[in-house]
Amino acid sequence: MIKYAFDRFLAAVALVVLMPILAVILIAVRIDSSGPGLFRQIRIGRDGRAFTIYKFRTMVNGAGRMADVSPEGDPRITRAGRVLRRWYLDELPQLYNVLRADMSLVGPRPETPEYVALYTLDERRILTLRPGVVGPSTLGFMDEADRLAAADDPAGYYASVLLHERVRLDLDYLRRRSLSYDIALLAKQAWAIVAGALRKVSPTNLNDHEQHTRVREAGRGGGSY
What is the pTM of this model? Predict the structure, then answer.
C-alpha cells in the first residue's frame, strides 16, 4: 500500500512539473516525422492482465509492424528518437501508466504477449508484480541495443537469450523489493542515464558513430526503409 501511494504521488507530481517539457517533446516528435506523437502497444502486466503502454514515438510511423526488437543503428529510429532514447525521455509517458496503476515506478519490465508466452513456469512468477518504468533489468541491460546489433539474428537472440536474462534479474527484485530498494534503483538509473548519454556524445563515440553509419549505408547501397 505504501509503495502504491508513493508511486502514484510521485507520478502525479512529475506529470504536473514536466507538463511543459512533455508538450515540447510531443511537438518535436510530430515535426520530426509524420505520424502520432505517442506510441501505444499492448503489454502484459500484473496477474497476466493486458494493458496499453505509452511512450513517445521514436521510430518512423508503422515501424512496429517490421520488427519487434531494435538494435543499435536501427534505420527506423528518427532524429528526435535518437535523442529521446539517449536520455530515456521516450519513457516519460509511462508516468501516466503509473497514475492509472498499470505500472509502478520500479519493477520488472513489461513484455508483449508473444514474449510472455515464452516464459517458463518459474519465470511467470514475475507476473505477480506490477511492472515498472525502471527496474533491475532496465538498469542491467542499458547496452541491449549494442548486444542486439552484434547478433546475427537480433529477434532470435532476444527471444532465446536476452529475454530470459532480463527476467532472471527481475526475479531477483521479487525477492529484494522494498521502498528503500526502489529509491536506490531510481537513483542508480538516473545516474546511469546521465553517464551513458554523456558518454555517447563524447568526440570519440561521435567519430565511431559516423564511421559505423557510413559502413551501414554502404552495405545498404544508400537505401533505407
Answer: 0.87
